Amino acid sequence: MTGLLGALAALLLLSREPRIDRIDPPHWWSGMGVDTLELLVEGANLTSRAVRVQGRGVSLISATAAGNSRYQYLRVQIAPNAPSQTITIIADGQPGDTALFELRQRGRRQDRIGLDQSDVMYLVMA
Question: Which residues of the chain have pLDDT under 50?
Answer without folding.
Answer: 11
